[in-house]
């Protein structure tokens, strides 16, 4: 399949963010992504508009985008899976499909997007899905605004939850976005039944060796961690101090980290956010790249419902 070279997803999301800033100012959050999708064509002089956005049965898919000719004019229908119950996931799905419309529609007339199928798709499909995810993330959660809202506050889950509310996304989506730009050493860990499912580290944490490899591996949650101790009564959103070696054996014995967690009964999972002090980079150029399947698993911030 010959594809037209796509526009840069971050540049396109930033362009829309600038226009929303000029037209709506501070009142523009959360982004009215449905209205934006329907008005995009008329605002930018395109004839092939998204005319319908609907929730419908899409077994096996999160969302879809279809172009159909009507009276010699191409019209697009954007569909999200009506089985999705979390508003943040619906919003991200619509933004994701809008990303396909802006970035990729010149190459094809249909898109069907599934998280579970991502690893089986051809490389061009994976690249397009990744680009649509990046577009949606930057459109819904502009980094400049996110930085301003975080400011100099000590990052606790309550602060990130307020950002999630502002942007109309899940807490997971907000944490993932924060990990993209924070200079702190921070690690997100998703676990169930005492085992790590997936993880994501900030750049500084990854370069210092604070990350987990989970693909093809079974890794237990440390037994002395907050994540493994449901009976510990602490303000979990603010976390507790633990020896850093509880989670990362390579850290100095006299170093501590702050662990925060949220348990989701809905998905039977635990989200743990680990904040470590600054450290010298210990990144090895030959180290295996950190697992990237977290975005494939919950690209819309699947867990937890907030």
Task: Describe what you observe in this structure.
The protein is an alpha+beta fold and 306 residues long. The protein has 2 domains: 9-140, Orthogonal Bundle (Arc Repressor Mutant, subunit A); 154-298, 2-Layer Sandwich (Beta-Lactamase), CATH 3.30.450. The protein has 9 helices and 9 strands. The protein has helices at 9-24, 33-44, 87-104, 123-140, 143-150, 157-167, 171-181, 203-207, 293-298, and strands at residues 50-56, 63-70, 73-81, 110-113, 185-192, 195-201, 240-243, 256-264, 269-276. Helix 1 packs parallel to helix 4, helix 3 packs across helix 4 (123-140) and helix 6 (157-167) crosses helix 7. Mean pLDDT is 85; it is low at 1-5, 117-121, 285-289 and 292-306.
Give me the CATH architecture of the largest domain, please.
2-Layer Sandwich
CA gyration radius, whole angstroms: 20 Å
Ends distance: 40 Å
Helix count, DSSP H or I runs of 4 or more residues = 9
- Name the beta content range: 15-25%
Shape descriptor:
elongated
Fold-level CATH name of the largest domain: Beta-Lactamase
Give the uncertain stretches in residue-range form: 1-5, 117-121, 285-289, 292-306
Mean pLDDT: 85
Look at the structure and give the CATH class of the largest domain: Alpha Beta
Strand order of the largest sheet: 6-5-9-8-7
Share in helix? 25-40%
Count of all domains: 2
Please write the string of helix (H) and strand (E) elements.
HHEEEHEHHHHEEHEEEH
Q: What would a concise description of this structure say?
A:
The chain is α+β, with helices and mostly antiparallel strands. It has nine helices and nine strands. It has two domains: 9-140, Orthogonal Bundle (Arc Repressor Mutant, subunit A), CATH 1.10.10; 154-298, Beta-Lactamase (2-Layer Sandwich), CATH 3.30.450.
């Amino acid at each position: 399949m010959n594809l037209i070279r796509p526009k840069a997803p971050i540049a396109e999301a930033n362009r829309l963010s600038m226009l929303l800033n000029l037209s709506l100012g501070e009142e523009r959050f959360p982004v009215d992504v449905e209205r934006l999708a329907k008005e995009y064509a008329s605002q930018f002089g395109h004839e092939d508009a998204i005319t319908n956005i609907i929730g419908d049965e899409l077994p096996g898919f999160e969302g879809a985008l279809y172009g159909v000719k009507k009276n010699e004019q191409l019209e697009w229908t954007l569909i999200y899976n009506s089985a999705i119950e979390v508003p943040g996931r619906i919003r991200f799905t619509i933004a994701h499909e809008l990303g396909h419309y802006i970035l990729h529609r010149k190459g094809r007339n249909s898109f069907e997007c599934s998280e579970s199928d991502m690893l089986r798709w051809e490389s061009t499909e994976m690249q397009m899905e990744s680009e649509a995810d990046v577009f949606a993330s930057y459109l819904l959660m502009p980094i400049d605004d996110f930085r301003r809202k975080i400011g100099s506050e000590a990052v606790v889950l309550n602060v990130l939850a307020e950002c999630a509310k502002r942007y109309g996304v899940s807490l997971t989506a907000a944490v993932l976005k924060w990990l993209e730009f924070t200079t702190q050493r921070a690690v997100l860990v998703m676990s169930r039944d005492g085992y790590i499912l997936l993880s994501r580290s900030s750049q500084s944490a990854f370069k210092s060796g604070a990350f987990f490899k989970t693909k093809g591996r079974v890794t237990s949650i440390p037994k002395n961690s907050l994540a493994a101790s449901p009976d510990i009564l602490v303000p979990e959103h603010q976390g507790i101090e633990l020896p850093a070696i509880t989670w990362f054996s390579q850290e100095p014995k006299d170093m501590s980290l702050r662990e925060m967690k949220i348990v989701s009964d809905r998905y039977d999972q635990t989200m743990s956010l680990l904040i470590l002090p600054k450290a010298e980079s210990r990144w090895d150029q030959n180290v295996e790249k950190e697992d990237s399947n977290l975005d494939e698993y919950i690209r819309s911030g699947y867990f937890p419902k907030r």
